[in-house]
Fold this sequence. Notes:
Blueprint: H1 2-14, H2 18-22, H3 38-62, H4 81-84, H5 102-118, H6 147-156, H7 167-174, H8 180-196, H9 200-213, H10 218-230, H11 234-245, H12 251-264, H13 268-277, H14 286-298, H15 302-315, H16 320-332, H17 336-348, H18 354-364
Helix pairs in contact: 3-5, 8-9, 9-10, 10-11, 10-12, 11-12, 12-13, 13-14, 14-15, 14-16, 15-16, 16-17, 17-18
Amino acid sequence: MSLVNKMLRDLDARRAGNGERAALPAAVTPLAARQEPRGVRTPILLATVLLLAALGAWYAGSEQSAAPAVTTAVPAAPVPATLAAQTEPAAPAAPASLPANAPALAALSSLRMADQLAAAPATLPKTPPKTESKAPAIATSLPKPPPQAAAAAVAAKPVVKEPTEPMESRIDKQVRLPSAVERAEADYRRGLLAQRQGNADGAAGSYRAALENYPEHAAARQTLAAQLIDAKRFDEAEELLRKGAELPPVRLASTLALARLKVERNQAGAALDLLLKNAASGERSAEYQGFAGALLNRAGRTAEAVEHYRAATHLAPNEGRWWAGLGIALDAAGKGPDAREAYQKARALPGLPADLAQHIEQRLR
């Protein structure tokens, strides 16, 4: 309707006659004859402008390929390769029916094309964002060295050796000589092995070697003395035990062994003297007290024998031998009831020798 109204305005401007107006449809009346309200013209004009803009946009879209590329709108960005590859045909002549505002529409289409070019296409290179850093950027695009070069670089690094300990301390840790006690113990065990195998001479040699390394080795001295006594070599055995009685660590064991050896050689008096001489070392030994009580009772010194036997039963109350010896000493001293009580305690304990058990049974009848 806006185009028809424009045509009517043109006819009025030329003052067309009735003949020209008769050529129009009957429903179309001159613009002057239709007095549209003032409030209605503004929407109509606005609609007309919008229609013209839409026509111009359609025209610009259809003629976009023919329009020359506009590069001035984006001075800093290069033209995409896809646009540059397009051919630029010559612009066709404007049709005669082009509206009067065609130059404005062409300018509008050019601006729209400029807007499209101003938008960064997907193929345009992106400018990396500026990073504020006080330290210079470290290049990360340097080529990595080949594995052979890295291995050679590692092999070329100097090997740092840790400080080593002095030679003396290393020798002490690696090669430590055994002590005298350890050597004596090793010799003693070799002697036991040789004795079990029936090699008496080899066993005696190992025992003597143990005593040379460590004279205080009580087991080696006692075992060697017993071996000598079995071989009827009493003088060698006494000399061996006498030397041991002079050493405090093995004094008590050597004294008891030497006293028994003297009793075996019918030297009970000498054995008793030896025990009483070393009474201090056997004060807390039940074996010493019982042995001394037996020698004192044989010597007729019954009162002293009772004292030593009582000391032995006090130190070892579960040993039947000392209760039997106490009963014998009390019986010899004329104290029958006390002796009977001691006999009964001895009979109640295990481990009583056969001869003592027989003697007790006879005294209790």
